[in-house]
Amino acid sequence: MWQFTSPQKIIFGEDALDSLEELEGEKALIIAGQTVKRLGLIDKVSELLAEADIDVGVIDNIEPEPSIETVKAVAEIARDFEPDWIIGLGGGSSMDAAKAIWALYERPDLDVGDISPLETLGLRKKARFMCIPTTSGSGSEATWATVITDREGKVKRELASRELVPDVVILEPWLTSTMPPHLTASSGMDALTHAIEAYASNWRNDFSDTLAIKAIQMVFEYLPLAVSNGEDMVAREMMQNAATMAGMAFSNSFVGMAHAIGHSLGAIFGIDHGKAVALFLPHVIRYNGEVVSSRYAEILDALEIDFDFEEDAPNILAQALVELMMEIGLPCEICEMDIDWKDYEAELENLVERALMSSANLAGPREAEFDDYREIIVVAFGSLDKG
To answer: Which residues of 21-59 are buried (b: 16+ CB within 10 A; e: fewer)?
Structure first.
């Protein structure tokens, strides 16, 4: 038996944000970061909520890769404020933090690690949950997953509960137009990685497949346009929709090895998540190609990329990804980034061990062992002199 979980309501398109004027409630707590504050987006959302006679509280100090300490501290503030809406405003970090904060606000007896699909959390007794993404990549607005960083252990905690799926999602295209090209590119590759890994997952299904394949098509078509012209509202809207669709897809199938290694690389070297997963995706596709070449062939068909034989599909798709990354200005090898081979080599065992512990391995199409991961991690570093 399968279950498909998605947000109760998605409001999208031009002027979607204006729907806040009709929101019912008494108090809303906005969870956001400094960038969103600096851009004036918190003020805009607060003004619209005020039109609905809602008292607004603001937390604007959510850091990239939010920590357990931040989540616990803000949950305490939420308990004092007693909102009936928790609103995650921003990128994946703010929305992920908002999910965990909401859970701990509703359940003061919980620890962050208690957020699990095996536990009944009993949320929505105090507040409902809304996400308003300002980036197009994480898909957190459509998922029941949240990633919180254990800074002391240098580990990203991958947490999940179907109860964490937002009640309302607002997709306002112009909110993403403030993203600079490099962030547009990396977040877009995050969305693409979600969709491709969802399509190859052992837990894939008819519903996730439909969302994933459409999201893949949209990213290949519109990401270069959004990177080259941030004011292209058609490209922004399509990328926003694609990211949410990819989020719905992987939330109901799962991600895979690229995320397992990407989380490991990000935790140890502080690499942006979208870049991290994208760097490994072509290599993971080649590795998985031995068992799911037909799935990659279907992706190539959807992209109208020619190939002669199904067994060629993994390499051709991997090369198409490399070409896309080059077009949008992202590094294709880790050696292109500010990481020295000796430092990388010293962390190889650690990178592999952390990747092996990731829940992203649960539904991967091909089982991987220590040496498999190690080879991918070494090859992904690239061709510069490792002497």
So the answer is: eebebebbbbbbbebbbeeebbebbbebbeebebebbbb
Torsion of CA 152, 158, 318, 135, to 10 degrees: -90
In this structure, whether the domain defined by 9-176 belongs to CATH 3.40.50.1970 is answered with yes
CATH number assigned to the domain covering 181-381? 1.20.1090.10
* Cα distance between residue 262 and residue 1, in whole Å: 31
pLDDT at 155: 74
In the chain, which residues fall in CATH 3.40.50.1970? 9-176
Q: Which residues, given as ranges, of the chain have pLDDT below 50?
A: 386-387
Nearest to 59 by CA among 27, 93, 33: 33
At residue 129, what are phi and psi to the nearest 5 degrees?
-125, 135
Structural tokens at position 48: 């619209």
Q: By the 8 A CB rule, do 7 and 67 touch? A: no
DSSP letter string over 260-329?
Answer: HHHHHHHHHH---HHHHHHHHHHHHHHHHHHHHHHHHHHHHHHHT---SSGGGHHHHHHHHHHHHHHHTT
Structure tokens, 19: 């729907």
State which amino acid sits at residue 383: S
pLDDT of residue 151: 82
DSSP per position, 9-57: EEEESTTGGGGGGG---SEEEEE--HHHHHTTHHHHHHHHHHHTT-EEE
Instruction: Please answer whether residues 253 and 363 qualify as being in contact, where contact means their C-beta atoms are separated by less than 8 angstroms.
Output: yes
Looking at residue 56, its amino acid is V
Provide the whole-model pTM. Answer: 0.94
Question: What gap in Å lies between CA 197 and CA 281, rounded to an integer?
Answer: 9
Residue ranges of the chain that CATH labels 1.20.1090.10: 181-381
- pLDDT (0 to 100) of residue 328: 99
